[in-house]
Specification:
A hairpin with an 8-residue loop joins strand 55 and strand 56. Among the domains are: 86 residues, no CATH class; 182 residues. The strands form 7 sheets. It has a 30-stranded antiparallel sheet that branches. The chain has a 6-stranded antiparallel β-barrel with strand order 4-5-10-11-9-8. It is extended. By secondary structure, it is mostly beta strands.
Amino acid sequence: MAIQKPSHTLAKIHLKALRTKSLHILFTLSFTMFINMFCFAQELPNTKDPIKPKTEKDTVTVSVDTLLPKPLNIKEQDSVKNDSVPKKKEVLTGIVNYKAKDYVRLNQRENRTTLYNEAEVNYTDMNIKAGIIVIDHGKNLVYAGRLKDSAGVYTQAPVFTQGQSVVEPDSIIFHTVTKKAIIFNSKTEYGEGVIMAEKTKRENDSILFIKNGKFTTSENLDDPEYYFLMRTAKVVPGVKVVTGVTNLFIYDVPTPIGLPFAYFPMTKKQTSGVIMPTPGQDLGNDRGYFLQNGGYYFAISDYLDLAVLGDYYTNGSYGLRLESNYALRYKFRGTLSFRFENLINSERGFPDFAKSTIYNIRWSHNQDAKANPNSRFSASVNLGSSQYYRQSINQLNLSNTQNNTLASSISYSKTFSGEPQVNMNVTATHSQNTNTEQINMTLPTIQASVGRVFPFAPKAGTKKGIIQNINLQYNVRGENRIQTTDSLFFKSEMFDDARVGAVHSIPVSTNFKVFKYFSMSANANFEENWTLNTINRFYDQENDEIVTEDLKQFDRFLTYNFSASIGTTLYGMFGKEGSTSKIQQVRHVIRPSISYNINPAFDEYYDTFEIVDADGTTAGEVQREQFTRFEGALFGVPNRTFSSSMGISIGNNFEAKVRDRDSTATEPKKIKLLNNLNFSTSYNFAGDSLQWSPLRVSGGTTILKDKMNINFGMVLDPYALDNNNRKIDKFNIDNGGSLFRLTSANLNISYSLSSKQFEDEGSSEDDRAIQESLRSGGRADDLFGKPQDFADQRLTDVDRSDKKKEPSEFYNYKIPWSLRLAYAVNYTNSARQNRISNNSLMFSGDIELSPRWAVGASSGYDFVNKGFTQTQLRFERDLLSWRMNFTWVPFGQYNSWNFFIGIRSNLLKDLKYDKRRQRDQQL
């Protein structure tokens, strides 16, 4: 037990003096304090440590049945809230809208709704239009069918549309819950093709099963020219059609052409796939059997694709082609192609055995004008083997076989806005002569110019006078020019003879009026040439030869020249307006011009060396040779001879007003007599002889409503010839001849005429052929024949929708036709040859003998060599869904023929027959 001490507060209370009159209160407080000091607690104090309980583990093991599941700690929920029986969905998940022209009748006893005449039902993404529609609400079925009039003719066939799928059957049964349907005698369009099925089971909106279906691309579905009969087929709309046994019918006549199964792609997107090759045999060059134009098409993206095609011949010849198109809307578009052919003629060991490799690279890139107004990138590349167009086995481009030049250009231009404006252009060019196999390239050409500056012009108002019109600008042009041949192209040796140079020019000019009616201009041009190619020339006495050393070092030279010109315009009118004559007035416009040029001599850039004889003495003045170290310069050499010349030119233009044949016309009609008639010559004041240059005459006009173009030219020399046919310093008239001596002349006439209907219709095939010829560097017409690219049937795949003809029972009063003529003649008499060097007529024409038969020809006649030029004959038959053509080159170096018949649609373009005789071997 413990003694509990009183608190300090109580102790203080007891020590205080107590003042009270109540004795019992005092006694109570004293007794309370006494109890508080001597009382004990109720718990006894611990006299020793307590005894702790001992824990022991029970050794008895209680086994639990393993079949019983272990208890889970889960929270019980009310079973009423999670009812295991799902709620029943509503029968219709959408709103059904329906209408009909005659009546909509509801039969409550049969639970049916009938819509009659021009009935239509819309339910979710489904739309049905038909003559009569019956909705069975109890079975969730929709029946749609046709109406039969009093004459027994069925009208208003159903049209079933769901999403992008459109079906036109005779009748249809549709289940609104499962969305399955049975369709009878349906016609469904899939891309370019149409499937006509006797019975179709629609599993859902993405799978159809067909029985006895007909697949065709014909426009006449009631009587198609051809179709593929599919006994059973599975259709995935927009993806594919997979069939069982399928064979081809032509006008309901079965053919032996068939397959145990077939696959038709139906996607509207670009998809990758195999391109089937064309088999055949090459007998003209003994290459054996072949497979041509087989490969794979890669649909890389929406902006880029790639076609890889190849050929293989059993004698070892092969070819490879890569074709790619790319485009980015509002940015750029282009095409890139690479073609390589390894050609083997005959067999090894035979005398006509030959082996060659040819290639061709073409690239066309066009930038949209709205993409970037301050910079532009473009490319037009056509390079390769010089003999490619003449030897290629997979194309016959007749126009390019007559073209002697291949040209390419890649350029980038940039404009820096400001005052003055700065323009920069970087270009890489290529020019190749296919006859000499000479190649000239610039890698690259850099050009820059600063806009024209008028240093003395007023800040406001117009510029007047000679001083205020003084202007100057700065131009610079730098090139790295390479000249090589076919054999060294793409090899390191092609850079050995490269020449590098730059030219800086500052043209200064002004213009002003003289005597009110004369315009005068004065010009000065300062040029500085930089070059990295100079030479040194000396005489090697030991070997008795002149040695020229090529020095690869920097050097420069400065030149300048001055010129001035004055000209005016004179107008003359002949005749009286309103006269009764056919030609009422003739208008003559004359533009005379006189120019004066001074080109100083820059002798400081020329050096001399002496040729010494064997005795060691100077050989004489005649052996003193002069040269300039800038002979290897890229932009020419300094002028060594001073010239002071005057140029004279006169331009003429003739027009007439004639009485119009239309009596209702109030104004006379204007016609062109001569578009231009120009004369030009010059006189060299500094020359010691032959100071007059020949008089050059050129002119041109158009007649026959601008259908015929006529251009002519001639060169008239005032000086005579000696007995050795060399020009002498004596006028021809003083030598007993005429005033001028005709040294050369030329005349070119082109004529194009076609029927109005033929012009309006046009032909996408012609457009594709022209574009192919232009891309290859050929002509824009077919005077040399239309090109044929057997590796790209798109060139000859004409869309018949572009050639719409008005139906007519009689056709013979409208026969579309076209005719193109070109005549050229050249006369040469510079050294008394007096001969016609060239005289040829080329012509090309097309005519439609009937609405579906067309023939054409391209040929020419050489009157000098007395023979026909390159000739091509064309025949084409429009077989509606099919196309048949025959092209024949009957004679000449490229004699060959090609026959083609195939389906017009791109979907079935592999179904074709192509037979051709290739041109003979060219050694």
